[in-house]
Specification:
CATH superfamily of the largest domain: Fumarase/aspartase (Central domain)
CATH architecture of the largest domain: Up-down Bundle
CATH class of the largest domain: Mainly Alpha
Number of domains: 3
Distance between the termini: 46 Å
Helix content: 55-70%
Number of helices: 20
Radius of gyration: 30 Å
Amino acid sequence: MGKMWAGRFKKQLDKHADDFNSSIHIDSIMYKEDIAGSIAHATMLAAQGIIDKSDAEVIINGLTGILEDIQAGLLQFNLDAEDIHMFIESELTERCGDAGKKLHTARSRNDQVAVDTKMYIRAKIKELKTSISGFIETIVNLAEDNTSTIMSGYTHLQKAQPITFAHHLLAYANMLTRDIGRLDDTAKRMNLSPLGCCALAGTTYPIDREMTAKLLGFDGVTANSLDGVSDRDYCIELASTISILMMHLSRFAEEIILWCSWEFKYIELDDAYSTGSSIMPQKKNPDIAELVRGKTGRVYGNLIALLTIMKGLPLAYNKDMQEDKEEIFDSIDTAIHCVEIFNPMLKTAKILKENMAFSAEKGFINATDCADYLVKKGLPFRTAYKTTGEIVAYCIENKKTLSTLSLEKYKGFSPLFEKDIYTAVDLLECVERRTSLGAPSAAATLLQLAAIKEYLEQLNNG
């Protein structure tokens, strides 16, 4: 396949160098964006009198035909082409002759690839947001069914205080809403069109950059032509945002893995989202959750790769920047796949409520409530804290819990204890007394659920 830039050269590019230089195996997925950008560019060129309207009509019809043929499977990508931009332009020229050769007037591949990438990423951000919002909805539905499901809250992976499974789930729902917010911020910041920056210094033709920006759904144009073609910080910002999302998914996956173990047995994954062992017939492995956890490292690697690619590049465009697409496209697709498999995995999981409650009873997670009981009876907190610690130590040594310790033994530690101590250390009562905003009581949880439902409604209607 002849190169559009071959006029300057007396020799053909070495075959291995040509393969090394080519990116069509990566950027061919942007064919729709490339054609849309070219149609907008041709429309603007005709409106500005830079090319004849008849030529623009031929170009637009030709591009529309190419799009239809690709989508119908009638036109295959030529892997000998340098990139998707050269493939489409070559195909257009073959179909439309001299009119097709006019399309690239007042345009460079530098601003062309930048606008294609922004449009592609913009669409993928919307797809990722839709996946996340669906996952949040699943979490909300599961939380609604578990507002009274007692479980241990942990710090340092040690049982700490009583919460509900709903409360735990809603922590992740809130993380995911912030992930969507970061995606929105990235999308808003990047939504400026680089088309018209050309190679780096704009053009002498009387183009209308605002027109093409509007046609392509951008909020405006990049203010500096050098920046417009050499900027990839939107890729890096998105890779960072996705890395944070994947960190949240990985933490959740880690807990799923722990909860599935015999040591916890808080949940059981559906057979459709578990695998077995080739040698141990009893095994039911949480491989899907483990893969989500593992793919997080892959996404982190893409972020570091992008930062490293860009860190030493002088302005403006350098061929190093061709490497940006493989990393950011992979990060986006990986995140979408992880969210979309995590959603049904969680939705179909069996929640073993009795196991959660039984485990909570054994962890002295009501010790703080015991101390608070003494404080409310007039004991200074530090004294109450010490007394409760002594009670816990006694219970451990004598295989008791705060609920089964006799009132006589309680009074041996402090005369302030009365029969109502058993209400004070009841796990459900401990939870229900935590009514502060964001706390795990049913009343506080319902407020959290209402807020996230309202958020989802605004998101879906926005």
